[in-house]
């Protein structure tokens, strides 16, 4: 049987989506906790796990893969013949679900990081100076504009691709979860997105990972 070893940290959004995939598909794996900004930048990690110094990374019988979407696609191709996390069979349906995964990892993530980097992560964890209130307001407006675009993309569907939750919904959820928590904002101006967010949050594995993430954040801020 294939041996899977996962390198991650629960506070990371792409790590949570990858863990959601492993747990939802019921895949046994060893878990290696990695300290962000410390272990990830060590010689040991960059020489043995990921030269780009990032988690998630998955070791499959000694072969390492990084990039959350690559790992998710690999796990889906290998272990999700029934289309539990991504649709199988119809290529166009699959492409629509993968589009959401990629929107999460590019447009959404980029825009969230642009704000949470200087507003929260920099000052809290990297010893950087706080930015001005004016700059902060502008970045939060851009985040809200991205929420607006997601609200439009979602429309009146239950999930981004229709009536079934896919890995892309979870990926977007995790990016929004971290952004709203760190920026102390909410989705109240975007009603469909708000309803969707609450529904995704009720998924059993998402709820379990959220609990673990908030506990880890609480421990970090002590
Ligand atoms: N595109 C990558 C992004 C991974 C990423 O940004 N990982 C961050 C945590 S969220 C990281 O490992 N940072 C460590 C560091 O900067 O030292 C993916 O989707 O896997």
Automatic annotation (TrEMBL):
One of its GO terms (biological process) is glutathione metabolic process. It comes from the Eukaryota. Residues 90-222 form the GST C-terminal domain. One of its GO terms (molecular function) is glutathione transferase activity. InterPro entries: Glutathione-S-Trfase_C-like, Glutathione-S-Trfase_C_sf, Glutathione_S-Trfase, Glutathione_S-Trfase_N, GST_C, Thioredoxin-like_sf. PROSITE patterns: GST_CTER, GST_NTER. Pfam families: GST_C (PF00043), GST_N (PF02798). Residues 2-83 form the GST N-terminal domain. Belongs to the GST superfamily. Homodimer. This is Glutathione transferase. It comes from Euplotes crassus.
């Amino acid at each position: 049987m294939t041996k899977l070893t996962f390198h991650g940290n629960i506070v990371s959004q792409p790590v949570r989506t990858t863990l959601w995939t492993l747990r939802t598909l019921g895949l046994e794996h060893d878990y290696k906790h990695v300290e962000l900004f410390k272990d990830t930048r060590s010689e040991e990690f960059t020489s043995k796990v990921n030269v780009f110094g990032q988690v998630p990374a998955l070791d499959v019988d000694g072969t390492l893969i990084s990039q959350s979407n690559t790992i998710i696609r690999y796990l889906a191709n290998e272990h999700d013949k029934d289309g539990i996390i991504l649709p199988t069979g119809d290529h166009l349906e699959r492409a629509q679900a993968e589009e959401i995964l990629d929107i999460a990892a590019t447009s959404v993530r980029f825009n969230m990081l642009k704000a949470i980097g200087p507003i929260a992560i920099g000052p809290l964890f990297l010893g950087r100076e706080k930015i001005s209130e004016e700059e902060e307001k502008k970045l939060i407006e851009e985040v809200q504009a991205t929420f607006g675009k997601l609200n439009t993309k979602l429309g009146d569907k239950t999930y981004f691709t229709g009536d079934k939750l896919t890995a892309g919904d979870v990926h977007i959820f995790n990016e929004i979860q971290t952004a709203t928590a760190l920026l102390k904002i909410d989705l109240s101006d975007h009603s469909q997105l708000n309803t969707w967010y609450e529904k995704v949050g009720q998924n059993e594995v998402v709820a379990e990972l959220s609990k673990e993430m908030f506990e880890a954040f609480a421990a970090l801020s002590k």
